[in-house]
Amino acid sequence: xxxxxxxxxxxxxxxxxxxxxxxxxxxxxxxxxxxxxxxxxxxxxxxxxxxxxxxxxxxxxxxxxxxxxxxxxxxxxxxxxxxxxxxxxxxxxxxxxxxxxxxxxxxxxxxxxxxxxxxxxxxxxxxxxxxxxxxxxxxxxxxxxxxxxxxxxxxxxxxxxxxxxxxxxxxxxxxxxxxxxxxxxxxxxxxxxxxxxxxxxxxxxxxxxxxxxxxxxxxxxxxxxxxxxxxxxxxxxxxxxxxxxxxxxxxxxxxxxxxxxxxxxxxxxxxxxxxxxxxxxxxxxxxxxxxxxxxxxxxxxxxxxxxxxxxxxxxxxxxxxxxxxxxxxxxxxxxxxxxxxxxxxxxxxxxxxxxxxxxxxxxxxxxxxxxxxxxxxxxxxxxxxxxxxxxxxxxxxxxxxxxxxxxxxxxxxxxxxxxxxxxxxxxxxxxxxxxxxxxxxxxxxxxxxxxxxxxxxxxxxxxxxxxxxxxxxxxxxxxxxxxxxxxxxxxxxxxxxxxxxxxxxxxxxxxxxxxxxxxxxxxxxxxxxxxxxxxxxxxxxxxxxxxxxxxxxxxxxxxxxxxxxxxxxxxxxxxxxxxxxxxxxxxxxxxxxxxxxxxxxxxxxxxxxxxxxxxxxxxxxxxxxxxxxxxxxxxxxxxxxxxxxxxxxxxxxxxxxxxxxxxxxxxxxxxxxxxxxxxxxxxxxxxxxxxx
Length: 692
Prior knowledge:
4 domains, Serine Threonine Protein Phosphatase 5, Tetratricopeptide repeat, 4-stranded parallel β-sheet, Rossmann fold, 6-stranded parallel β-sheet, elongated
């Protein structure tokens, strides 16, 4: 789900003070004689100046021209005429007038400064810079020229020079809060966030109610991963300037990112009360509502954003996500098609379309869209990763396993699990004879169980194999053939020569669909625990079945793979004995179990306990969770109930699994349709255990 949270640095404050105007130079009347001509000149000049100060510019300009006609070298008249022309927007004429002023008076500092300002207005940046440099050369203390020069360098992205210019100004007058502020903006562009933050703080010492300095501090503190401090500055910015919509917007985004969804929603609402035509705020409000599972309201927010900006690609794609969650894939597909129509070269749009096609099990088309996405954007980690999953789903392991290495770049959490040992990574390119290989687990418990099957093949290459894994798996993985030692996560590691993540083993071993090691059991339960369970369960009177109906709620596809026990329980034949194999039970399922004590509950402290209990059962029925892998690896008869768009490891349209010979797969026939699947399972249970 993409959010549109944007952070914009503010360069001007709604309360900012403009730099002081250059002081007007005194009129130059030296050399004039007290003659009628000189008196006329003085009177004309004074009348022109009065007209200029009264903003009667159309009258002032001809009067200055009359002065110039009487005295062609009157630099001040050219200067004042240039100012009037500048104010009227006649910039080219203004430059010509300033040119005449500095021609007749080369050290005319004010004319050089204003000449630079007008040249900047004409887009003549280099010429303007030369004018400001000349003004500063004439008067190094001219803060107006220095400020203009610094701003120009900033606008030209000449950041080191701009920084030096700001520092020169502050050396002359460290009380200029705006200069500290702009200096912070320059330091931010130079990639020095800490120094920029200090500069903004200097501005705030001088002007504590400087709203945009607070705002920019908030943006930087977010970048520096200090959300609490950032929020404080956003709060101060909005308290000082309640109409500061961008500060409200970024405040909302911060609250959203820290999962304070109700507060984020209120902040987006406040943003929109100030600026109702802000499409990003409507779109981000939709994201928050989406996270709160308020689907109709989310769609309404997206629609308002699109009314303001019909080509808002991300908004079309977020609408698609809502329709996917609501099991409306055709509507979701239409959103993606519209995004592609607007931007055929949008990798995100092609990727979004691929995810919907996956939901519809249109896998060939899905792969085409993923190929387009990665062609348009080769470093698109999520698309590359999904492409790997699509290849694996189709059983194309030759291309799938190499592409699956994109998982490290796709998942920020997983990337933190990737180990950076001094010893080299082994991916099958070096001999392991006489070497020690560390295989470390990654992702979930089920992944480690499924891929530990490759350890015997590695051991046969002559390696001593050490496994590092999650603590609940230690006792179980010690039973895998070829394992020399198993170490729990966080424990000291023994010496080793190479390392390999456990899900990279099939790549290293060049595994194909035909060469999956499928001999079971490859895990074994503790005989003592099995005996204890048999004693605890007592003599078997009827077939015993273990049940699992939900997985980790934090898993991305859990809303599809899991269901509530209450929806299944009425389909279970009561002539059989059932026990719950779930370790973590959701509150609504707790209530269902309490009302149906014929489903036995046992304390399962460890995964080894679960494995031992599985050994005492005739059948395990589970959704796609770690128990499906555990039971399959133990060689127990296992029925796995799969969502319509099942995980890649179960392949396409198969009722068997090349990974687990004792597993039978039951698949939904349409999206979200568990009831018909429950009916099929119930019928097969009666046929297997109750027939005759």
